[in-house]
Structures are given as C-alpha cells and as structure tokens.
Automatic annotation (TrEMBL):
<protein>
    <recommendedName>
        <fullName>isochorismate synthase</fullName>
        <ecNumber>5.4.4.2</ecNumber>
    </recommendedName>
</protein>
<keyword id="KW-0413">Isomerase</keyword>
<dbReference type="InterPro" id="IPR005801">
    <property type="entry name" value="ADC_synthase"/>
</dbReference>
<dbReference type="InterPro" id="IPR004561">
    <property type="entry name" value="IsoChor_synthase"/>
</dbReference>
<comment type="similarity">
    <text>Belongs to the isochorismate synthase family.</text>
</comment>
<feature type="domain" description="Chorismate-utilising enzyme C-terminal">
    <location>
        <begin position="116"/>
        <end position="381"/>
    </location>
</feature>
<dbReference type="InterPro" id="IPR015890">
    <property type="entry name" value="Chorismate_C"/>
</dbReference>
<dbReference type="Pfam" id="PF00425">
    <property type="entry name" value="Chorismate_bind"/>
</dbReference>
Length: 400
C-alpha cells in the first residue's frame, strides 16, 4: 500500500513497546498499528459523535483502532495510532516476535464453570426462555483459566493461530492498572459485525454451529444437519432480524438473504447471512450516525453474542455467568476519517496476561436448546485456541 517495508529482522521489536501495538490480520488483508497519539474512552451510545469529533481536527489519512467491550454501557477502548502498517509488515512483525518468544509448557487448566455447572446454567436459561417473560434467546459463555510455567507471548499466540482462511486474527492491547502486567485479547474470529466502504455496508452475522467432523464425510454430514436444523435456523433468524431492523432506517437499499449459508472455520461450521446495504446519507455531515464505528456501536451487541431482546438478555447473562466478559464478545476494528472501516465480533479469544490465559466460548440458547449439546458446542469452540496455546487435550477431558 505504498508504505516502506520495515526491516523487522533485528528491529525495535522489543517486548517493552509491544503494548502499544494492535494487530488485525486475515487472508484478505490487515493492519498493525503502532504507538498512541490519543485515546477515546466513551460508551457505545456516545461513540459515533466522539469519533466524528476526533476526525474533525485530524489528518485525512488518520485512523482509529480498538475495541468495544461486551457491555455497551462500559467504555470503548479506541486509540489514534502514530503509524499504521500494512498486512505484509504485520506478518513480518508477528514472525519476528514469535521467534523471540519462549514456547509455552507446564500447563494447568481450570474450567469456569466445569461442564456440569455450565449445563445447569443452560438449564436455567432454557427455563427462563420457556416461561416467556418476553425473552427469546440468550447467549451463555463459559471460560477456561489456563496457567503456563512460561510467560505467554500474545504475538506468538497470534502467529500460532495462522492458517485458517475463515477467520481474522487480532491482538488488542488492553487497558490495565499502572502496576499490572500488560494484558491482551488475542483471538481468531470468524464473524464480521460491520464494514463500511463509501456508502456500502456489509454485516455477516453467524449463529447456529456444529463442530467439523473427524473426516470429510462426517464433516459434510454435520454441515447438512446444521443447514436443516430448525433450532439453529431459529437461533440464527433472531440475529439477522435485529441487524436488518437497525440498519434499515439508515439504508436506501438493504439485501437480506432469506436463508443462511454455511461458514467454515478450521474447526467449526456456522450458519451465516451476508447482509448488504447502501447508506441513504454517507456524507461527512452524517459521520456521527454512519461512520463504521457508529454503525458497529449501533448494532453491538447483536443476538449472536447477547440475545433478544437485548436488555433482558444482558440482564440474564449477568445473572447466569460467573466471569465478567470484558472485551470478549465485544467488537475489534478500525475506522478512518472518511468513516470507512471494519469491525469484527471479538470471539474465539483469550485474555492473556503474564503466565495466564483465560479462554472464552459461548453458545446461543433458545427454548428448545439442550444443556448437553450447548456444553459440547462450547467445548468445540475452545479447540482452536487450546491447540494454538499447545495445551494438552488430556487437561480438558469430556466431563470438564
Ligand atoms: C458466542 C460465540 O459464538 C457466536 C458466533 C457464532 C455462532 C454462535 C452460536 O452458534 O451460538 C454464537 O452466536 C462464541 O464463539 O463464543
């Protein structure tokens, strides 16, 4: 992209300054941001206006990068970087940092909660959904707390997550207390919340999942079963409907396919719908409502990570989950001064700090969900990260 390629073979690639870098990288492209000129810390409802104000005084090639936490009332964490590098440089940086990192070993692993506890929470959720109270869907997550004898490098981990064309990898430096070790959210997400280019907007929500099989035939059979599953199609429809309802008033055209397609990652199948719209007003005057950051903040959190209706589902999640989500199930991405940008749902990730990693996985619960199947789905969603961290599968037996 016309940028000088930095020599990263013996560079200033010191772990000390890595905390000011953020990475977004997929097979289609990506970026590595460096340094911090300014920060934006406002909740989702104020984000569109704050981003527009920020860009009003900024250079035309300025960008903001960062994340929205799951809780839309908590502060987003957006940075104005000093420099933004292209995907090739991002790859070179990862390669270099991964080479310097020590491989992890000596793992211990604790499920929070273990399988039985998660199944009990799903059973309570199903009861709430069957009783009505206006709640139709909610997404319940659980976590695995992993400790390594060696420090965990977020760059090493991001490098280990390479190779899956169905995901975008991300490394997000997180705000921490002054005396705390640096912390990151590192993941490989399959889900696009929202991208904007000029007047064109795209959202590609995923909901409804099946683990890929041990061989091709089994994998195809599971994909076919997922495509026909009334439970998964119902779970998916809530997400598409919520996104379409929020985008429709802002778009002169909105294309919403009637049936979902299959989306594959290396370990999972998902139902996905590509929603495409044309904004009515993509002018600079309308940036507070229609920048990619404003649109992401409008849609977030969708029923793919929260539920329907949103406020009641968020309340039920707070009551039924034991570990705060932080930036898991939030959104990571970028926005430029013209309002263009892309925001991805922060899934399939781990919160990494020192020797510890906390892995997150959730599943959409509807009235006809079964606790055993939802627990199995979260197990399958942990797999990519467990493998990338090199955590022996014996530490996560089926009853956990
Ligand atoms: C909440 C997660 O996945 C979401 C994305 C795809 C499929 C999902 C599902 O089938 O439940 C979830 O909505 C997660 O991976 O933690």
């Amino acid at each position: 992209m016309g940028m000088m390629r930095e020599d990263l073979s013996r560079p200033a690639a010191q772990p000390g300054d890595a905390g000011t870098r953020m990475l977004l990288l997929s097979h289609q492209g990506g970026l590595l941001s460096e340094g911090v000129q300014a920060q934006l810390a406002v909740p989702a409802a104020q984000l569109g206006a704050a981003v527009a104000r920020h860009f009003a005084g900024a250079a035309s090639d300025a960008k903001l990068v960062g994340a929205l936490p799951f809780d839309r009332h908590a502060s987003a964490h957006l940075l104005a970087p000093r420099r933004v590098r292209d995907a090739d440089t991002a790859n070179a940086w990862l390669h270099c940092m991964a080479r310097q990192a020590e491989a992890t070993r000596g793992w211990s692993l604790q499920a929070e909660p273990a399988r039985a506890g998660y199944e009990a929470a799903v059973a309570q959720a199903v009861q709430r959904l069957q009783q009505g109270h206006g709640l139709h869907k909610l997404v319940l997550a659980r976590t695995l707390h992993a400790r390594s004898a060696t420090p965990i490098s977020p760059w090493w981990l991001a490098r280990r997550l390479a190779g899956d064309p169905g995901v975008l990898r991300y490394v997000l430096p997180l705000p921490v207390q002054a005396d705390a070790a640096p912390a990151w959210l590192v993941g490989a997400t399959p889900e696009l919340l929202l991208s904007r280019r000029g007047a064109s907007v795209v959202s590609e929500p995923l909901a409804g999942s099946a683990a890929r099989g041990p061989d091709r035939a089994a994998s195809e059979a599971r994909a076919a079963a997922l495509r026909d599953s009334a439970k998964d199609l119902g779970e998916h429809r809530y997400v598409v409907q919520a996104i379409a309802d929020l985008l429709a008033p802002l778009c002169r055209q909105l294309r919403v396919p009637a049936t979902p397609a299959l989306h594959a990652t290396a370990s999972m199948w998902h139902l996905g719908t590509r929603i495409e719209g044309e904004l009515k007003d993509a002018s600079p005057d309308n940036l507070p409502q229609t920048s990619s950051a404003a649109l992401a903040a409008l849609l977030h959190p969708t029923p793919a990570v929260c539920g329907t209706p949103r406020a009641a589902a968020a309340e039920a999640i707070a009551a039924l989950e034991s570990v705060p989500r932080g930036f898991y199930a939030g959104a990571v991405g970028w926005c430029d001064a013209a309002g263009d940008g892309a925001w991805h749902v922060a899934l399939r990730c781990a919160h990494v700090q020192g020797h510890e990693a906390r892995l997150f996985a959730g599943a959409g619960i509807v009235a006809d969900s079964t606790p055993q199947a939802e627990a199995a789905e979260t197990r399958a969603k942990f797999n990519a990260m467990l493998h990338a961290l090199d955590i022996p599968s014996a530490l996560f037996p089926p009853d956990r």
